[in-house]
Every structure is written in C-alpha cells, then in structure tokens.
Design goal:
With about 140 residues, the protein is mainly alpha-helical. Helices cover about 50% and strands about 0% of the residues.
Amino acid sequence: MKKKLDDWDVKVIGADEDKPKVEPQKGPSLKKLVMYLQDRTTGMSMSLNAPVNGPAMMKIFSTMIADSVTHDQIYQMIDLFADDIKRTPLKEQETPWRAFAARRGELFKRVQGSTVQSTSEKVQFDPRLEKFLND
C-alpha cells in the first residue's frame, strides 16, 4: 500500500504505515475442526446429542489461529478435552462446546511446548460412578 502524500509530497497525518501482509495458515477448514470437536464429544455429555454451535466455534477457532495456535495444537486440545470429560463428566446443564470454549486457555497451556500422549491407559473413574461399578 502506498503512503498517502499531499500536493507537497509530505505524508498526510493519519496515513497508514506500510504493514507486511500476513499469510493465513494453511490447514484444515474451520468446519473440519468443529466436526472433529463434535465427533470427539458426542455421547460424553449428559444431555442427549448436545449440539455444537458451529458458527460460535468457528469464530473461536479463527481467533485462536489468529493468535498463532496451530491446527495440530487445536486437535491436541480437543483430544485432551475429550479425555478430560471421559474421566470427569460435565454437569448436566453444561454443553461440551461451551466447556471447551471456557477451558481453551488451560488446554493450550497443557499443549504448548509438550508432546501430548494419550492418557486412555490411566483412566480414572469419577467417584460418583464408583457405586455403579461395584454392583
């Protein structure tokens, strides 16, 4: 973008500085990320077929990508979240997509700078479910 100059070749007050164009990250579409979240959390909520608010999650994912979170990190965050809610179910009135949105900062800290390994071998049961397992 060219700087705005007036008739005397002087920069106009309030003219934008030249900014380098930032290329968007290449990766899966936002819709695929939303579908992956829905697939990983379907059946884990106490409410039947808890829907995922696609437009809201696309906005959240696009904000995360703009803040330099990679697509791989988002997939890892979704996997961690799914493992977390397997071990400790969400409250009855809480939908998975809202819980993910609320926990995304904590999930990113867990993913950032580490390799995520599946914790499915170390499954811990929620104490509320132990009475049903012992019967």
